Amino acid sequence: MTCTAQLMGGGPAALNEHLAIGRVVDVAASVLALAPAAPHERIENGQQVPGTWRHAIAEPLRTEDLDLKEWYEALSAGGKRDYDETVEARCEELKRAIGNLTEFTVISQSRTIIDLAADVVLSGRPDLVVLGPERVIVEIKSGKGFGIDDELAFYALVDALSQGAAPSVIVGVSLLPSTAVTPQAVNLDLLQRTADRVMQAVRRCRTVDESVAKNRWPLTSSGRHCLICDHAERCPDIPDELLEEALLMNNHELDDDFYNNEEEA
């Protein structure tokens, strides 16, 4: 999906609570699948004390992810406490949702790249691939899981092209507003529909390239992806019904003028 922000050179959205929690959940997935009941200990005042998933996952992650570390250290004491409690709650929800997979081979965050054509490369990195009686692809969202079905279908297509055989099942896990696990069998119809959408996107990207090469702005399409864009407030293409949620996602303060302008419209 191409939008004005991408053509403006806009990078990833600024790190906020939603994205920070998402990074932790991505890392936590394989740990919780392979060691759901593993005890964790940490050192406090020179003594070993029982730890939590936050201590086992979120704190080590911050030492590796400098953006996340800087964002976390800038929080107030209360903000840190709220964030830590949320991370702990999401990890517990995720542990219950994915269950104990220690009997299977689990591949975590492995990227597959397929050269579809000379100028078309498909790349997928699902959260988990579970190799058991069936090949199962699992994708996890720390929020409501918008777009998770499309994402899983794309991963199934990339996996099928890479392995020469499609995975049997794709599973979506969303953690809000309550934990939901949605399995779906992979069949030829799903792969065909996904391949058609991929080809539409390929043609769209080529059209954008041609427009940019001729110094023309291409037509843009908006959608749920607008919610994590840090250009949302200035974007002429985002629908009004998405703007408020986009501003909240990017930690903008919504003042009275926003709601007054919305009412006038």
Number of helices: 9
User: Low-confidence parts lasting 5 or more residues at pLDDT below 50?
Assistant: 253-265
Please estimate the helix content.
40-55%
Order of strands in the sheet with the most strands?
A: 3-6-7-8-9
Oligomer: single chain
Distance between the termini: 28 Å
- Give, in order, the helices and strands: HHEEHHHEEEEEHEEHHH
Strand content: 15-25%
Annotation, overall tally of beta strands: 9
Characterize the overall form. globular
What radius of gyration results from the CA coordinates?
21 Å
Mean pLDDT: 83
Report what the structure shows.
The chain has 265 residues and is α+β, with helices and mostly antiparallel strands. Helix content is 47%, strand content 17%. The protein is built from 9 helices and 9 strands. It has helices spanning 4-7, 17-34, 53-64, 66-73, 77-98, 148-163, 188-213, 240-249, 256-264, and strands at residues 41-44, 47-50, 105-108, 112-117, 120-124, 128-131, 135-141, 169-174, 180-185. A 5-stranded mixed sheet has the order 3-6-7-8-9, with helices on both faces. A hairpin with a 2-residue loop joins strand 1 and strand 2. The radius of gyration is 21 Å and the shape is globular. The chain starts with a helix and ends with a helix. Mean pLDDT is 83; it is low at 253-265.
